[in-house]
Amino acid sequence: LIERGLRAQLQLQSIVTGQLSVQLDILPNRPARYVGPVGDLPEMPTIPSSMQEFTETMESISFQDMANDARQVIAGLKALVNSPELAEILTGVNQFVNSGELLGIITHADKAISDVQALVSNTDGRVEELSASAEFTFVKVNETLDSVQKTLDAARQLLLIAAEGSSVRYELEQMLSELTATARSIRLLAEYLERHPDALLRGKPGGP
């Protein structure tokens, strides 16, 4: 039975009287511990009681170090909360959100998206409706790409300070998704026009 995992363990029977009992159980995963036989009596391998394991665990914990660490964390939080830098950041974020500048960025992004949609449509052979020359159209494509990229960079910076789950963060994430796709489309258009400048005059291959 011992080889199969028979172990003895002290159990507390009564909290009031402190009476203990010996419980035998098959615990093959617990190593056998011997303290030495008493006379001719056979020795039963034991395992620590729950109270002994708890006591050993508590003794291994440095509560003084935990208290010191907690004091340092609290001191750091107090310094952060009371720092003028944090107050300035929070004030700046609040002013930015309420100033209408965020709405301006979103509006500007919408206009940039509309511009590129018009440019892409006119690449199908209707460029003359948008500009009087191929050079002007190519410049407008690059200007639009630059504008979208700047708006994208600004939105990414704002996303870093927007609170999780806030409506502002949701709008920024939606705008970032649209701007990323838009910037990719404009970049492909600019690269195509750079390789095929004559497409501005006769349209893309297969166009009307």
UniProtKB/TrEMBL annotation:
Record's protein name: Mce/MlaD domain-containing protein
